[in-house]
Description:
- 2 copies of one chain form a homodimer.
- Chain A has 14 helices and 13 strands.
- Chain A is an alpha/beta fold.
- The radius of gyration of chain A is 23 Å and the shape is elongated.
- Chains A and B meet through α7, α10, β9, α11 and β13 of A and α7, α10, β9, α11 and β13 of B.
Amino acid sequence: MKPKNILYAQSGGVTAVINASAAGVIETARAAGHKVGKVYAARNGILGVLHEDLIDTSFESKIAIQSLRYTPGGAFGSCRYKLKDIETHAAEYERLMAVFKAHEIDVFMYNGGGDSADTAYKISQLGKKMGYPLQCIGIPKTIDNDLPITDTCPGFGSVAKYVATSIREASYDIASMCSSSTKVFIMEVMGRHAGWIAAAAGLARAHEKDGPHIILFPERPFNEATFLNKVADCVKKYGFCSMVVSEGVRNADGKFLSESGLTDAFGHAQLGGVAPTIAALIKDKLGFKYHWAVLDYLQRSARHLASGTDAEQAYAVGKAALEYALEGKNAVMPVIVRESNIPYMWGIKEANLADMANVEKKMPADYISQDGFSITQACRDYLEPLIQGEDYPPYVNGLPDYRHLRNEPVVKKLKAF
Amino acid sequence: MKPKNILYAQSGGVTAVINASAAGVIETARAAGHKVGKVYAARNGILGVLHEDLIDTSFESKIAIQSLRYTPGGAFGSCRYKLKDIETHAAEYERLMAVFKAHEIDVFMYNGGGDSADTAYKISQLGKKMGYPLQCIGIPKTIDNDLPITDTCPGFGSVAKYVATSIREASYDIASMCSSSTKVFIMEVMGRHAGWIAAAAGLARAHEKDGPHIILFPERPFNEATFLNKVADCVKKYGFCSMVVSEGVRNADGKFLSESGLTDAFGHAQLGGVAPTIAALIKDKLGFKYHWAVLDYLQRSARHLASGTDAEQAYAVGKAALEYALEGKNAVMPVIVRESNIPYMWGIKEANLADMANVEKKMPADYISQDGFSITQACRDYLEPLIQGEDYPPYVNGLPDYRHLRNEPVVKKLKAF
């Protein structure tokens, strides 16, 4: 059998463990001997394919590839570029096929979220149409945890562990200060459309008095009066109120809270940060001293606190993708199956890309408590296994020893796109 | 010799390792056998003394005291209450002495920063005046790293490690995204008066291309034009610009940048966050897509990433304070001495509280680069030893196993204050 040439690309927002999936692909390919030819990566995701900007991973040492296992970000670069519709923009897809052909790519692997699954599915159908035998395999990744079929999405478990740890720590802090100083702490987390990450922060609450006392989910419209009552109630009961706010929280009109009326000196509305908006509201209506934090990129790049389970699963889906490639599969994605909850056991199964594309997994309604401010036991049961295990990176000189790859370019064979 | 009764109190903003100092005090006291009588703690710092709100630590199990070694926040509560001047407000000091007498306290230990050293010094002089033989011993703590004489302040090294790790991770993230998305990342850190914490983030920059490319220090007035040039230059050179901004950055008029013109829907000026202000400026003047994070409490409570050196030193100053107490000392504070840089060696020496009070250690001018945007080798040489070593807390169910104490109250003997 002719050795297969592989092209791997990373897509969308990166995570603490997407490189672990890359390591899973590359190490499995290296171990497969003569069955695999070249293993290329596209620089900056699908843009690298369009611009024939490819990287030859064979120049990377064994140690460099091992370091992918514990280095956050996207080692080959990612992108937010979304391919246009295949019917109206055939040229883009023809270009992709031209690049695949020019470099004799047998398998394209696309490591990303929902949009990427859609793109990967479209590409998986091109080979037959265009008479070039291309396999396309998706690899799941998204901190949003919104892919269907799979039990969870690699990247999410590590964010979950980080946000829960962070709010637990900050709650210990404010609990010490509240008698004479700060009464309210607000931590803003990602999740424009779904409250998965905000929910995960709820795992920090081991006892009733512990934070977070309030979680604001994008699934529940913000009601100012109910919210302020709840805050005042927490301060009365516990001496302080520690809360987690999803960036996606909206008011009853469906408008993002972070956009409702906040302006800077130039009249810009887009400053963002729902945390400071909520803080100002509390100060104005209740008069409490507050502190707030916005985690932003830190939550999805905090490899120093990765979930061991998540890192392992990220590696496993990369490994499985390469195995599917060698088995000649097309239009599939390895996904995670929960085999049991206690003890947590999981495996990998094959899903059809057609079923993964354009379906967003919502958070079940029974994961949010009746009053809308906390998570239920069902939610805990789902989330808890995902943050198990610590998988620390090595440290040099007191800091995580993350590594850059050489990323040697492959000589171009085509004209510029 | 009559066993000594100890009263320990925590003061000011708490840290990831202030409880390690408490553990140093209590474990050393327990090991001292008959030399030590009661070990009390004041609830919520000096307020607990004023209100005779004391805690008997003998009810805490050995395991509970061990857990202080790795639990962030202030286990007995802290406060931001500053004692009034001793000449004009004698009643407060008389009340303190009344509480000390009522509970036969021989040694008062005050664990805090600069203000607390001043308070501790004043109290140390009361015994002689008021004819009650009280010893007062200070224990250093502050993430601001601004106490004189001591080489560093327990609490700072852990913040330093956390901010440097965080900006390294976020820089790996934005480096992956910058080709088609975010170009600028801004991380805001604490440090109202001095740039120690911002400087520490500079340790993350191992190679020129690595972030942070820009640090904004409170020591250097903000110049909009120079800054914007530098940002544009970084984006051109590296493809992105990763920066760290101290909350204390001011413009040429000495006004905090975070206060310059930012208003919310109600016209409040105090929303704060210099990061969003800088972000809006960059968007307005350079048009770059940005992300920003504000660490706030998370940086000083991130016990999950404590510096091993810092945790060890925090414990050591607590232990030394108890030893000084047993030696009958008064008006002293154990501080940290750097004995050598490579390898880093340190010890504990005795400083006079009189010399610690009301002196703020500034960052040396030669720690900031000529252009004002990064740290020098001298600064690195000073900072690097302080973040060495990882001292991970134990984990249960995927989260750090931080513990609350029982905090059993001591029966009051006096009327309310």
